[in-house]
Write a structure and sequence with these properties.
467 residues; 21% strand
Length: 467
C-alpha cells in the first residue's frame, strides 16, 4: 500500500460517515490517513483517519503531469439544499457512476481545483449560495421573504392558498351557543339541572364584590345548642353558625362559684385564661416571624396594664406565659398591695422582666398593650386618665382581658377576650373572642344552663353579633 501514498482518492464510507476525498499520506491494512481532505464537499481540519472496516468503495483520481506540479484533482460533491421530495445528495451527484470491471477500480470524472485556494472556494461553494439575507437583500440567488420561507417549510408558496383574512365575527355569529347549551342541558339529570338553574338565577340578585369580599349568599343560622334560663340580652354567633347567648353578671357569678365549689379553682381559671390570652397576643405581635431564634434583634415588647383584681391577676399570668416564648414584657401594676395579684406577681418576678408602678417609666413605643385594668363585677369601672392618655399615644393594638360590658374608660381595644359565656358587650370592646375554661357540663346544669360545647377543636373562638 506504500504505492498509494500521494494519490488522490474518493473514499465512500458507510452512511453515517459519508464520502471523503483527499490525498493519501499514510496507508496500511487497518486504516488510511488523508490529508487536505473533504467530507461530502466540506473541508476537514487536519488529517482524517478512516478505518478499513468503514470503507465501502475507493476511487482513485488521476493526475496529469502539469496538474501534479501545480494543481490537484479531487472530486467534490456540490451540496444541494433540501427540497420537498429530495433526499440528501452524496458524492454520486458529481459524476455518473461507473461499474468496476476486471478488478480495476472505477475512476470518476475529475474536477480541477487549485489546492492552494480550495478552502476559500469550498466555503463559497458550500455556504455562499445557500445563505439567505435576513435584511431582505439578495444573496446567493435566494431572498429572505415570506414566500421563500413557506417554500422551504411546505415545499411551495402559500400565497395562492390564503387570499383574504379569516372573518372571526361572521363565523362566530353562525354558532348558536344558546341552542347548544340547551341541548347539553337537556341531557343532564334533573338534580344537576335544577342546581345550576338555581345558581344562574341567584347570581342575578348578587351585588358586585371585591376579590377579598365574600360572594357566597348568607344562609339562615338556626343552630342553637346553648340555652340559658332566661333570654334577656342579645346573642352572638360563631364562624360555624352556632348561636351563643349572653348571660347576666349574677348568672356568671353563680357559675364561677359552682365551679369553685366543685374544685375548678380560680388559679386553674387564671392559668387557662392566661394561656388563651398569650396565644392571641403572639398572633398580634407577628407570630413565628417575630419569635424566630434567628431574629433576636427584633424581639417584640408587650406592656401589660394590671389592676388589683382577678382581671389584673390574669394579665400578670399572661405576661409570665409570654416570657416563656421569648417575649419581653413590662407589667404595670396600679397597686402592689392587693392579695389577689400577689401570688401571680411573685411568679412573674422570677422571669427577671420589669415591673413598674408609675406611668413615666412606661416605654414610648411597644408592640402590644394588654389591658386588664377594670373589674367586670364592679358596677362602675374605674378610669385611669394618665394610662388612657399613654395608650392612645401609642400605635400598638390593645388586647383587653375580660373587660366590663361598657368598656374601659378612655381605652378602646382591638380585641377583647372573654371566659366561658359572654356578657352583653358594647361595640367599644372591639372584636370579641370566647375562651374555653374546661367547665364540666354538670356545673352548667347546676345553674340552669343547657350547655353543649361550641369550641370544637379550638380553645378560642370569635363571636359576631347575631342579627
Amino acid at each position: 500500500m506504500a504505492q498509494w501514498i500521494g494519490s488522490m482518492v474518493s473514499i465512500k464510507c458507510c452512511e453515517e460517515l459519508g464520502t471523503f476525498q483527499g490525498e493519501i499520506c499514510e496507508a496500511n491494512q487497518n486504516k488510511i490517513t488523508l490529508t487536505k481532505a473533504f467530507c461530502d464537499g466540506f473541508p476537514c481540519q487536519g488529517q482524517v483517519q478512516i478505518r478499513a472496516a468503514d470503507i465501502v468503495d475507493i476511487k482513485f483520481i488521476e493526475k496529469t503531469v502539469e496538474e501534479q506540479q501545480e494543481h490537484s484533482i479531487v472530486t467534490i460533491a456540490k451540496p444541494i439544499p433540501k427540497r420537498a421530495a429530495r433526499s440528501h445528495s452524496t458524492s454520486e451527484a458529481s459524476g455518473s457512476k461507473q461499474q468496476s470491471q476486471n478488478g480495476v477500480l472505477n475512476k470518476s470524472k475529475p474536477i480541477d481545483i487549485d489546492l492552494s485556494k480550495r478552502f476559500e472556494e469550498s466555503v463559497n461553494l458550500s455556504f455562499k449560495n445557500n445563505t439567505p439575507n435576513r435584511k431582505g437583500g439578495q444573496k446567493g440567488g435566494k431572498q429572505w421573504s415570506k414566500s421563500w420561507k413557506d417554500e422551504e417549510c411546505f415545499g411551495s408558496p402559500l400565497d395562492h392558498r390564503v387570499k383574504r383574512d379569516f372573518d372571526f365575527e361572521k363565523n362566530l355569529a353562525l354558532f348558536d351557543k344558546q341552542a347548544i347549551w340547551e341541548e347539553l342541558n337537556s341531557q343532564r339529570p334533573d338534580v344537576v339541572r335544577n342546581v345550576e338553574n338555581r345558581k344562574k338565577y341567584s347570581v342575578l340578585n348578587w351585588n358586585k364584590y371585591r376579590h377579598d369580599e365574600n360572594v357566597i349568599a348568607p344562609q339562615p343560622i338556626s343552630t342553637r345548642q346553648i340555652i340559658v334560663p332566661k333570654q334577656e340580652f342579645n346573642e352572638y354567633v360563631t364562624d360555624d353558625g352556632l348561636i351563643i347567648p349572653c348571660i347576666s353578671k349574677s348568672l356568671r357569678k353563680r357559675l364561677f362559684e359552682a365551679a369553685e365549689k366543685a374544685g375548678l379553682t380560680c388559679d386553674k381559671h387564671l392559668e387557662l385564661f392566661g394561656t388563651a390570652a398569650a396565644e392571641i397576643a403572639i398572633q398580634l405581635i407577628g407570630g413565628g416571624h417575630r419569635l424566630n431564634p434567628n431574629n433576636m434583634h427584633q424581639l417584640p415588647t408587650v406592656v401589660v396594664l394590671c389592676g388589683p383584681h382577678k382581671q389584673g391577676a390574669a394579665g400578670i399570668n399572661t405576661a409570665r406565659q409570654l416570657t416563656s416564648h421569648g417575649v419581653r414584657t413590662i407589667v404595670f401594676c396600679v397597686s402592689l398591695e392587693s392579695g389577689t395579684i400577689k401570688k401571680e406577681l411573685s411568679l412573674y418576678m422570677l422571669t427577671r422582666n420589669r415591673t413598674v408602678t408609675i406611668v413615666p417609666e412606661l416605654p414610648s413605643n411597644t408592640d402590644l398593650i394588654i389591658c386588664a385594668l377594670s373589674d367586670t363585677d364592679a358596677e362602675a369601672p374605674k378610669g385611669y386618665p394618665q394610662l388612657a392618655e399613654w395608650v392612645n399615644k401609642n400605635k400598638a393594638p390593645v388586647l383587653a382581658l375580660d373587660p366590663p360590658s361598657c368598656g374601659t374608660p378612655g381605652i378602646f381595644p382591638k380585641i377583647s377576650l372573654l371566659p366561658v359565656l359572654p356578657l352583653p358587650h358594647s361595640s367599644v370592646n372591639g372584636q370579641l373572642y370566647l375562651t374555653n375554661l374546661g367547665v364540666p357540663v354538670d356545673i352548667f346544669n347546676e345553674v340552669g344552663i343547657k350547655y353543649k360545647s361550641p369550641f370544637g377543636p379550638k380553645n378560642t373562638i370569635s363571636l359576631h353579633p347575631h342579627e
